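A.,

Following up on our hallway conversation. Structure tokens first:
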């Protein structure tokens, strides 16, 4: 384990690259920072710093894409409702579960999401409440434990056929909600410790430099190719991290644990081969309509087959989420962890 200063310098370099990527493609700060940062810090130390930075980034992204909010608000509302109980559950996990097992869970969940996103998996999703509520709850747990939500959100919004402006607005809207609520919950659980504050003080100037730089450079690069290469980098890092944590927890012995990394690399190389050999222009033309919208069968307005029952379920989950947040914020009724 490197010394604190060395670890902080390395994580600062990681954060600079992640901020550059975020500025270029609109998301990716936590997706890149957390998997690499977990090699040096635990979730309890790293997450609070990342969440505060994410709040600032997400409000900025939401502001510049505010024109797309009215078009996506109804679609993302079930996700926002589902986030509440998920964030409460995830925050308790971070505060009470052994850091090694949290790392294992983080890497295990993130790796398939990255590979699914890299594979370009798409299926039409039309039901807002039926999909949005459980998705929001799962997303809340994932984000509050890992501070990562970009890959699953990107998969969902791509499958809902959102245009570029709607996609970015929906992404920003959900991430503003999840990062803000998670930051509040972390604060009330006492997770903002001195080491987290030190990391945060390093992250803030790095983000202020990295995001504008990424936004400038991406004008000279093919955004889709750059995004795909970043996914590969992320997948390989997560594969390495998962292999390492399997060894640390004595679940798999070395060198067999590195078979996870080897398998990840092989799968990703295959997906990269498909990405660079299959003509993307023709595929995009088949899937897209005006304004880069996906084909009509995947972009129809979502309908809820459960009708009023879906809305009723949504309000019930919202009340449960509010109750869980009140439980967190009220020391008088909070059980010791």
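Then the amino acids I'd put at each of the 337 positions:
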């Amino acid at each position: 384990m490197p010394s604190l200063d060395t670890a902080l310098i390395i994580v600062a370099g990681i954060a600079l690259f992640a901020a550059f990527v975020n500025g270029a493609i609109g998301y990716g700060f936590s997706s890149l920072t957390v998997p690499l940062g977990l090699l040096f810090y635990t979730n309890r130390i790293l997450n609070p710093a990342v969440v505060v930075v994410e709040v600032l980034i997400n409000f900025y992204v939401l502001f510049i894409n505010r024109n797309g909010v009215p078009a996506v608000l109804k679609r993302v509302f079930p996700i926002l409702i589902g986030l509440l109980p998920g964030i409460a559950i995830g925050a308790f996990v971070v505060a009470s579960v052994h850091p090694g097992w949290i790392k294992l869970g983080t890497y295990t969940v993130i790796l398939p999401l990255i590979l699914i996103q890299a594979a370009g998996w798409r299926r039409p999703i039309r039901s807002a409440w039926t999909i949005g509520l459980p998705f929001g709850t799962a997303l809340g747990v994932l984000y509050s434990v890992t501070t990562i939500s970009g890959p699953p959100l990107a998969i969902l919004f791509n499958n809902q056929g959102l245009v570029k402006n709607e996609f970015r607005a929906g992404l920003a809207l959900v991430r503003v909600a999840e990062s803000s609520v998670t930051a509040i919950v972390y604060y009330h659980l006492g997770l903002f410790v001195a080491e987290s504050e030190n990391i945060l003080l390093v992250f803030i100037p790095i983000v202020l430099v990295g995001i504008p730089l990424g936004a400038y450079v991406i004008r000279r690069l093919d955004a889709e190719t750059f995004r795909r290469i970043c996914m590969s980098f992320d997948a390989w890092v997560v594969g390495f991290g998962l292999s390492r944590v399997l060894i640390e927890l004595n679940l798999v012995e070395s060198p067999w644990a590195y078979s996870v990394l080897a398998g990840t690399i092989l799968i990703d190389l295959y997906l990269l081969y498909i990405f660079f050999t299959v003509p993307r222009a023709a595929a995009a033309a088949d899937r897209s309509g005006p304004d880069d919208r996906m084909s009509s069968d995947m972009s129809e307005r979502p309908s809820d087959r459960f009708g009023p029952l879906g809305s009723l379920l949504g309000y019930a989950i919202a009340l449960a989420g509010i109750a869980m947040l009140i439980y967190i914020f009220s020391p008088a009724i909070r059980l010791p962890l």
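Residues 281-306, 332-337 have pLDDT under 50 and may be disordered. Curious whether your intuition agrees with the design.

B.
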